[in-house]
Specification:
2 domains; alpha/beta; 12 helices; Rossmann fold; 18% strand; 5-stranded parallel β-sheet; single chain
Length: 389
């Protein structure tokens, strides 16, 4: 447990416990007085710890900033952060606790798509706004109460398909993780690539916690694709990238925005050089044009994060930062009751965050209908902004 007694911010990391999902017939009951409460479920330990720790840091940083600036119309913000340990059942149990017992105004989380999907029915049952930090389109599809800050896999895959077509790569191999993040990518690639003549000639899967990939990669190599994509998040794709090079596969290698972080480069090492992926502008903000509207807010975020934690933030930390500030902005503009927050989130327009400029609507709860990511090359262990396809 991390708690600052006497301060405005309470950060709690709770080990595995079991909470019931009582049906709250009177609604979530979030108070119109006292602190504005954010219930945050992250994956600070387990398979996604490399992502979740940065998200926790960003939530802490964002709440500190909001409270220093007066909170939500004079009310301090309190973040209750629970560690789902990279487990879907824990994410659902903690979401229930936060809604039914802690009476939070907004749910934020979880780190990945599977745990976020486990949280979704809790938010919908209770009628509490939820902002996910996960990528899969299914997290927000047809939902009234769930929003998200990362761009959906749908728009990100479409961006990769444009790159593949521009390079003349028509036969593509896919190695993807078997989590909820990976489940939809083949469908999205088929959809985005159809009009461009792109065909997936091989699809292989790996467990998100896998460390060995020889069998899958040998089969991928046999398909003789013009280019291959490794799709996943956390540590496994970095290990798969190393195995790809060790097997001597020469086809150009692409990857997903799920690996666009310094931790991926550190784990993959020299094997990552020569890769292409689409990633958040946080990674290359100092390479952006001077008039890019995101350059200044990203720079401020990166500098504040580095000052507090001694290292630069990952793009995933940016998703959490944006989620907190979007929730606070909605509450400031429209009130702190769940329906008021939901309505304000759904009508947010051109809100410039770290990840992109968010515009939500009743039909679009991702807020980023076009990919805000940029194409990146990996050169000498660093991300380099690709100026042209």
């Amino acid at each position: 447990m991390r708690q600052r007694i006497g301060g405005a911010l309470v950060l709690t990391t709770v080990a595995a416990m079991t909470f019931g999902c009582s049906n709250n017939v009177d609604g979530p009951g979030a108070s119109d007085s006292g602190p504005f409460k954010l219930g945050v479920v992250l994956e600070v330990t387990g398979a996604a710890a490399s992502i979740g720790v940065g998200e926790r840091n960003a939530v802490e940083l964002a709440v500190d900033r909001v409270n220093a600036e007066g909170g939500v119309n004079g009310r301090q913000v309190k973040a209750i952060i629970l560690d789902a340990q990279s487990r879907e059942d824990q994410a659902a149990k903690y979401a229930s606790q936060l809604v039914d017992q802690d009476r939070v105004h907004v749910l934020i989380g979880s780190t990945r798509s599977g745990p976020s999907l486990a949280m979704r029915p809790i938010a919908e049952r209770a009628g509490v706004p939820m902002i996910s930090l996960a990528a899969a389109e299914r997290v927000i599809k047809d939902s009234r109460w769930v929003f998200k800050t990362p761009p959906s896999d749908r728009v990100v895959v479409a961006q990769l398909a444009d790159f593949l077509a521009a390079q003349g790569y028509r036969r593509v191999g896919l190695l993807r993780d078997s989590s909820a993040f990976g489940e939809g990518v083949r469908e999205e690639l088929d959809s985005a690539g159809k009009a461009k003549g792109i065909t997936v000639v091989a699809e292989e899967k790996f467990d998100p916690t896998a460390t060995q990939f020889s069998g899958e990669l040998v089969r991928l190599r046999a398909a003789d694709a013009q280019a291959n994509i490794i799709w996943g998040s956390a540590a496994a794709p970095a290990l798969a990238t190393k195995a790809y090079r060790e097997l001597g596969i020469t086809a150009p290698l692409l990857s997903s925005y799920g690996v666009a972080s310094a931790s991926f480069l550190s784990t993959a090492g020299a094997a990552a050089d020569g890769m292409v992926l689409n990633g958040n502008k946080v990674l290359v903000y100092d390479q952006l044009a001077a008039d890019d509207p995101q350059r200044a807010p990203i720079a401020a975020f990166v500098e504040a994060y580095r000052a507090k934690f001694g290292a630069p933030p990952s793009p995933f930390a940016g998703y959490a930062w944006d989620a907190v500030l979007l929730a606070v902005d909605a509450a400031k503009r429209g009130g702190t009751q769940p329906e008021q927050i939901r309505q304000q989130l759904e009508t947010s327009t051109d809100y410039v965050g770290v990840t992109g400029a968010f515009t939500f609507s009743a039909a679009e709860h991702s807020g980023l209908p076009v990919s805000p990511l940029v194409l990146l090359d990996v050169r000498a262990g660093a991300f380099v902004l690709r100026r042209s396809s």
